[in-house]
Amino acid sequence: MKLSKVALVGILAASSLAIYAAPSQAAVVGTTTSKADIIFKEDDGTTPTNPIDPTNPGDDVTPTDPDAPTPTTGALRLDYVSNIHFGEQTISGSDTTYKAKYDEVVLKSDGSTKYVPTFAQVTDNRGTNAGWKLQVSNDQFKAGSSELTGAVLTLKDAELNSANAAKPMNNQNVVLSGNSTMQDVVNAPVDSGMGVWTNAFGNTVGADANAENASVTLKVPGETKKDKDAKYVATLTWTLTDTPD
């Protein structure tokens, strides 16, 4: 009886070891490989990039200005630049600085209206990482043969923004005296500036339909002749090149 019990215990112990033993490594009987691929086609630039909110680049917007400038085309393109409106102002015989209105845009996400600073937007979908430069010049404000002699347009407090990872880029305050001299706005060196970028002048603190943007100003000498009820207009020429500094 004792021998049988011992034998039975031994059998049970062996069975437990068989059940709980770590599984043996599977034998490799063969290997093969597969591939994943992708082909990049050039962005021909025929479909413009939608303007985005320069203060929150995750939101697409529709500017409400009916005379918004025409975007350029190509894989490196200028999607949008603001027209600058100073509204109606009272004639003054003293040197006076006027502040611009904010841009009115509609958020595509919910259709609400928002006011944002004067801004420019550039898309670089070339894939070359070659960098780019944005410049601007202007002629003087004119109404027919009448010119605002000595008027100076200033765009300052520039802020770059993008949904992309930030890369070192240089943006400038811009002072335009109406002499058609090109001024640097943004310089995107090699290996920067890819994707969609906005450059806004000022911020949206207190921005509404009646607010004025202190970062975009027009200084007019008091001695300059000003025709009443005349609309003085200056043309700003924005130039985007693929030759950064």
TrEMBL record:
InterPro entries: WxL_dom (IPR027994)
Compositional bias of kind Low complexity: 46-72
UniProt domain WxL: residue ranges: 29-244
Protein name in the entry: WxL domain-containing protein
Domain of life, per lineage: Bacteria
Signal peptide span: 1-21
Keywords on record: Signal
Region feature (Disordered): 41-72
